[in-house]
């Protein structure tokens, strides 16, 4: 059993940490407060060649695996950039895998090098107000008309839609009541967000405000057949391929936030004196931090196992889901405890832990809720009856 990272992986960790450290907590606080996309950070990451980490070399990327991608996103989150930083680049790092695996050669040549150099922003359009976590119930419909599709429908929560030129869009091409298997009849497109036919409205939200999440209204968007990813009707399957790596990336981001929250808590716990002693001397504060350290370390192990399994072509559903579940919980708990330790100052913006708290809360909900992870483990790993 080998727990060591390779020299290259250690180098990725340290180089990303060095780059991310150029954007301090104040930068992220200001971007968050101004609801402004962190373009300078994004450009620096692109310039460093990091956006192309998992894109195959023939399209200008490095062709690395999910292990390296999780190291990158963990370090970004851990720098204090938290979800504002991670979400700004998350989709470029691994989200184009359906295109890498199933897109046409022309589509890959046109889009992947532009992802690598940072010129192309893409968002991911799956969630719909009427469907929620039951993706089979989406109703955004793509109707074939000659060599085009006419798309109509509504998506919700689509992150970065405002900044994006294109959308990876999941649609129905056969209505729900006309398919034998409920996840059949869905088709994936990579197409332009033509503002004449797409209305994008930001949602006011609790945190991660440097990256917008939006309602997207699609009205008679005409999409060439060439913008279809893979075969008609197979879209859900293509998205499914990417679910395990997505859970691992989110786990890594949660872990990074937990780590930085813990560091901030330890610093304040040593510095702040009340009743003539550092507050960190109180076991009521110290034990929860020690407990968080243990939980973050344990969650990291299952994440490393999950990424290793995936990169070695082995089944990893159990580990990917467990990693997301445990990292999201451990990351949020660490942020909550860090906030508590800061007392009133935890509630202010000045010490940044309230930002970590708000952003780490997200991973218990999206891209998949903790409840759905337990549904997966209960049904597919334990073999209990499906509960819904
Ligand atoms: C900030 C943010 C960014 C996002 N970005 C994107 C994006 O870029 N693209 C995109 O497509 N989506 C995005 N989402 C959407 C996100 O993936 C969904 O919010 C998430 O999957 C949960 O779906 P829902 O909100 O519809 O919850 P619902 O499906 O309405 O569920 C509500 C609650 O009920 C629980 N529940 C439902 N069914 C069951 C069941 N059978 N058993 C137990 N519990 C159940 C859920 O766990 C949840 O707690 C984003 C969301 C947020 C908040």
Automatic annotation (TrEMBL):
<dbReference type="InterPro" id="IPR013786">
    <property type="entry name" value="AcylCoA_DH/ox_N"/>
</dbReference>
<dbReference type="InterPro" id="IPR036250">
    <property type="entry name" value="AcylCo_DH-like_C"/>
</dbReference>
<dbReference type="GO" id="GO:0050660">
    <property type="term" value="F:flavin adenine dinucleotide binding"/>
</dbReference>
<dbReference type="GO" id="GO:0003995">
    <property type="term" value="F:acyl-CoA dehydrogenase activity"/>
</dbReference>
<dbReference type="Pfam" id="PF02770">
    <property type="entry name" value="Acyl-CoA_dh_M"/>
</dbReference>
<feature type="domain" description="Acyl-CoA dehydrogenase/oxidase N-terminal">
    <location>
        <begin position="6"/>
        <end position="119"/>
    </location>
</feature>
<dbReference type="Pfam" id="PF00441">
    <property type="entry name" value="Acyl-CoA_dh_1"/>
</dbReference>
<dbReference type="InterPro" id="IPR037069">
    <property type="entry name" value="AcylCoA_DH/ox_N_sf"/>
</dbReference>
<keyword id="KW-0560">Oxidoreductase</keyword>
<dbReference type="InterPro" id="IPR009100">
    <property type="entry name" value="AcylCoA_DH/oxidase_NM_dom_sf"/>
</dbReference>
<dbReference type="InterPro" id="IPR009075">
    <property type="entry name" value="AcylCo_DH/oxidase_C"/>
</dbReference>
<feature type="domain" description="Acyl-CoA dehydrogenase/oxidase C-terminal">
    <location>
        <begin position="233"/>
        <end position="381"/>
    </location>
</feature>
<feature type="domain" description="Acyl-CoA oxidase/dehydrogenase middle">
    <location>
        <begin position="123"/>
        <end position="220"/>
    </location>
</feature>
<dbReference type="GO" id="GO:0005737">
    <property type="term" value="C:cytoplasm"/>
</dbReference>
<dbReference type="InterPro" id="IPR050741">
    <property type="entry name" value="Acyl-CoA_dehydrogenase"/>
</dbReference>
<comment type="similarity">
    <text>Belongs to the acyl-CoA dehydrogenase family.</text>
</comment>
<dbReference type="Pfam" id="PF02771">
    <property type="entry name" value="Acyl-CoA_dh_N"/>
</dbReference>
<keyword id="KW-0285">Flavoprotein</keyword>
<dbReference type="InterPro" id="IPR046373">
    <property type="entry name" value="Acyl-CoA_Oxase/DH_mid-dom_sf"/>
</dbReference>
<dbReference type="GO" id="GO:0033539">
    <property type="term" value="P:fatty acid beta-oxidation using acyl-CoA dehydrogenase"/>
</dbReference>
<dbReference type="InterPro" id="IPR006089">
    <property type="entry name" value="Acyl-CoA_DH_CS"/>
</dbReference>
<keyword id="KW-0274">FAD</keyword>
<dbReference type="InterPro" id="IPR006091">
    <property type="entry name" value="Acyl-CoA_Oxase/DH_mid-dom"/>
</dbReference>
<protein>
    <submittedName>
        <fullName>Acyl-CoA dehydrogenase</fullName>
    </submittedName>
</protein>
């Amino acid at each position: 059993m080998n727990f060591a990272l390779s020299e290259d992986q250690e180098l990725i960790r340290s180089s990303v940490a060095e780059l991310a450290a150029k954007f301090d907590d104040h930068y992220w606080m200001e971007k968050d407060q101004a609801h402004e996309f962190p373009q300078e950070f994004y450009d620096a990451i692109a310039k460093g060649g990091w956006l192309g980490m998992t894109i195959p070399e023939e399209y200008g990327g490095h062709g690395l695996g999910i292990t390296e991608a999780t190291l990158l996103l963990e370090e970004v989150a851990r720098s204090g950039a938290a979800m504002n930083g991670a979400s700004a680049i998350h989709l470029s790092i691994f989200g184009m895998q359906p295109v890498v695996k199933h897109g046409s050669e022309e589509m890959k040549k046109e889009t992947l090098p532009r992802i690598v150099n940072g010129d192309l922003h893409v968002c991911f359009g799956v969630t719909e107000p009427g469907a929620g976590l039951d993706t089979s119930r989406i109703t955004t419909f793509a109707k074939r008309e000659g060599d085009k599709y006419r798309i109509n429908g509504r998506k919700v929560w689509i992150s970065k839609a405002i900044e994006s030129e294109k959308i990876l869009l999941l649609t129905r091409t056969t209505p729900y009541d006309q398919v034998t298997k409920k996840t059949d009849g869905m088709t994936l497109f990579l197409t332009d967000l033509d503002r004449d036919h797409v209305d994008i409205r930001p949602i006011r939200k609790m945190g991660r405000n440097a990256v917008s999440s939006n309602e997207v209204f699609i009205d008679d968007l005409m999409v060439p057949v060439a913008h279809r990813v893979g075969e008609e009707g197979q879209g859900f399957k293509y998205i499914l391929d990417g679910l395990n790596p997505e859970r691992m990336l989110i786990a890594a981001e949660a872990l990074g936030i937990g780590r930085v929250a813990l560091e901030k808590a330890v610093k304040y716990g040593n510095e702040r004196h009340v009743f003539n002693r550092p507050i960190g001397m109180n076991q009521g504060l110290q034990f929860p931090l020690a407990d968080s350290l243990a939980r973050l370390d344990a969650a990291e192990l299952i994440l490393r196992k999950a990424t290793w399994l995936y990169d070695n072509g082995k089944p990893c559903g159990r580990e990917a889901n467990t990693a997301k579940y445990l990292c999201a919980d451990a990351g949020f708990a660490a942020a909550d405890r860090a906030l508590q330790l800061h007392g009133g100052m935890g509630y202010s913006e000045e010490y940044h832990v309230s930002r970590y708290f708000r952003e780490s809360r997200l991973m218990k909900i999206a891209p998949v809720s903790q409840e759905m992870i337990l549904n997966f483990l209960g049904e597919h790993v334990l073999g209990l009856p499906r509960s819904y």
